[in-house]
Amino acid sequence: MAYKNASSTYKETKIKTASQGQLIVMLYDEAVKQLSKAVELLELYKNEKKDHGRIEKISKAIMKTEEIITELMISLDFEQGGEISKNLFSLYTWFNRELIEANINQDTKRIITVKDMISELRNTWSTVASQSPAEHPRETAGLNIAG
Length: 147
Prior knowledge:
- Helices cover 80% and strands 0% of the residues.
- By secondary structure, it is mostly helical.
- It has one domain: Four Helix Bundle (Hemerythrin (Met), subunit A) (Up-down Bundle), CATH 1.20.120.340.
- Helix 3 (52-74) runs antiparallel to helix 4.
- The two termini are 15 Å apart.
- Residues 136-141 have low confidence and may be disordered.
């Protein structure tokens, strides 16, 4: 119990002290983690007995990713980001549509496609965040990625 509280406190502190670029990388990391979990559970579901409890877990992982993508969408700055922000918004919209369809149809291929694309974006943002001058940490509201 004490370990869990310490771990949770560490994650919360890490998030509260992160720069905006680091927060975006953390969101991408969590999205990839959730989609990997969904793929793993979906493969088990398809290859073993149809455990309906597993379908609920798959759906929750996909929906958590949709929430993360929505959080990324609302964080876009169209004034400063210009064309890049518009393109990311379109891409995020497509991600959410694909994930809705994947969830409905239990489509592993769609989930993997979105996961791979998010992973590429994550790697790009990680590079940008590591090369950017230090930002002041900011207090954030919204999606809880600490646990």
